[in-house]
Amino acid sequence: METTPLGLFELSPAIIQQLKRELACPFLVWYIGVSYFIFSKEATGAILLSDPQLLKFLKLQATEVSFMPRSVVSWGFVPILLLSLLASPGSGFGAQDGDAQVKSVKPGINDQWVSTDIDPLIDILEAESREIYRERSNLAALVGPPPGAIIADVGAGSGFMAEEFATLVGDEGIVYAVDINPVMLDDVLRKANAKGITNIRKVLSPEDSVNLAPKSVDIVFLCDTYHHFEYPTPTMKSIYPALRSGGQLVLVDFNRIPGQSEPWLLEHVRAGEEVFKEEILQAGFELTNSHYPPYLTENYVLRFRKPPASH
User: Is 177 helix (H, G, I), strand (E, B) or coil?
Assistant: First the structure.
């Protein structure tokens, strides 16, 4: 996700739009300019904003910044005021601002998976040599969504697991196919409709969020997807409120064992089971079960839940 440097703050495109809408007050504009001047010691009077419209909107000329009195550096409340502005309730910044500063844990890992040429991607996902695809019915049964459940298949890909879940939850249930590739999502619905499956809904998500409404799902399913989270911390922060109290998160991912796993897997998957488990626990979930079914030799299955008292 592209960001715009502004002092210590990284501004995402969404926040830039928010600035355009809300920062019409010259007083606030002046403080943003001062904050940048303070934090960028090597600044020569230039405001490095990648969005020319925002630069014009803020009306910050190089001379206006470079001639600000040096005494402002000692005004400790200046950066505090800016931080308060960006994080204030109702401003729309809150979590966005914090998440915008999170660095990618695996830059470029999803470049291939946002391609509009989806046929090669489907060939990879639905290869019979891939045990997740080969054992999809067994895996869906292990997850075990009851009739009427609402389940989110995050990183749905070609939709083969979404179709399995759609059968299990029945007409009263819903399956949200969540993915970052809009072309793939359209294809998921096209194939489902051709098969008479009517309870799959598509959800296009950005790289750092699952884009689901609060308390909207009973189960979140992550199958060979977690290691593709380029921004796992904000993504997990979006999953937690999307689950209802006591809801489940089921993680399926590769066994990554140094000295045993293939070199490509060690390179592709950034960490193993223990690391991923700890990251999810840190996001507020509780581990309820670890599954190692005999039909899965390349993957493990971990089941978590959102504590029942959670909101």
Answer: strand
- What CATH number does residue 266 fall under? 3.40.50.150
Type of residue numbered 292 = Y
Boundary of a domain, candidates 100, 135, 165: 100
Neighbours of 190 (CB within 10 A): 11
Q: Which structural domain, as residue segments, surrounds residue 216? A: 112-305
Query: Coil, strand, or helix at residue 261?
Result: coil
Question: Among 127, 133, 129, 196, which residue's Cα sits nearest to residue 159?
Answer: 133
Domain shared by 93 and 216, yes or no: no
Q: What is the pLDDT of residue 102?
A: 79
CA distances to 37, 57, 60, 89 from 52, rounded to whole Å, are 19, 8, 11, 28
Ordered mean pLDDT values, 10 residues apiece, the chain (311 residues): 40 46 44 44 36 41 35 41 42 41 88 97 96 98 98 98 98 97 98 98 97 97 97 97 97 96 95 97 97 96 92 65
The predicted pLDDT at position 268 comes to 95
Q: Which amino acid is at 23?
A: L
Looking up tokens 């899965």 gives 296
Q: What is the CA radius of gyration of the chain?
A: 23
Gap between the Cα atoms of 12 and 156, Å rounded: 26
CA 40 from centre of chain: 30
Are 33 and 61 members of one domain? yes
In a shared domain, residues 122 and 239 = yes
Whether residue 118 sits in one domain with residue 26: no
Of the three residues 100, 128, 155, the one that is the final residue of a domain is: 100
Helix (H) or strand (E) segment spanning residue 73 = none
Domain assignment of residue 218, yes or no: yes
Of 58, 62, 59, the closest CA to residue 44 belongs to: 62
User: In total, how many domains does the chain have?
Assistant: 2
Question: Looking at residue 310, what is its pLDDT?
Answer: 66
DSSP state string for 24-86: --HHHHHHHHHHHHHH-TT--S----S-HHHHHHHT--HHHHHTS-GGGGG-THHHHHHHHHH
